[in-house]
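Possible regression after last week's pipeline update?

I re-ran a chain I had predicted before the update to compare outputs. Posting the input and the new output here so someone can diff against the archived version. Not blocking, just want to make sure nothing changed silently.
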Amino acid sequence: MDSQETLLDCVSEPESEPELAAPDPVFGAITVLDFDCDDAMMTSTDVTVRGESHIRYSVKTVRAGLVGMTPKTVFSQGEGVLATMQRRVIIPDLLTLGDKTMRLCSWLKTPIFSLFLGSFSEGRDTYIWREGRGGRIDLCKGSGTSTSSIARFYPSNYIATHNHRRMTCHAHLILGAEADLIREKVFISCVIIVQRMRKRALAREREDLLVLWPFMAGIGCGFPVA
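New output (post-update):
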């Protein structure tokens, strides 16, 4: 049977036109990656380097094979594939990074009970993603106590103040000099962390709805539910 792939399109429609926020000069950004689409799960988006007009990176999520198959996310740079991530239900997710295929958790460690969102290693160095303010996430280098950011991701609904004016930012990832040396791995890990965060948030919303539903149904019927 031939394999079929269905692209999961981005359908994000922001209430107001987002702006390209200038990076904090104190941060010392070397590169800014702008995401053209920041949908609910960041399934598909094209990414440009600020100041350039052509697409540098892309994220595409497809469902490959039979109906009901779990999605596969492809990270590309131009015509080349940087990585692919295969989501699976019972067994661990798979990541192909370069020419190596491994369990996702063996590269990007995301402990359930932890003060940080996830971590990965490059050489002898460890890089840790932490939750920031207003939905922002920060990448720090070193031990779990490190608070100095070398990269930051701002979602499209992030509210920033620039020249005493509040503005809604376009989704973007800013990288300091050290993070720019491993830009592709920072980019890939960032997208995976954001997808994971939003999936968990959606699950919590559904759980809350299930808890509230009996009370809502009782109010709608005009009598309390025992």
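Follow-up from reviewer: compared with the archived run. Confidence is low (pLDDT under 50) at residues 1-7, 11-16. Marking as no regression found.
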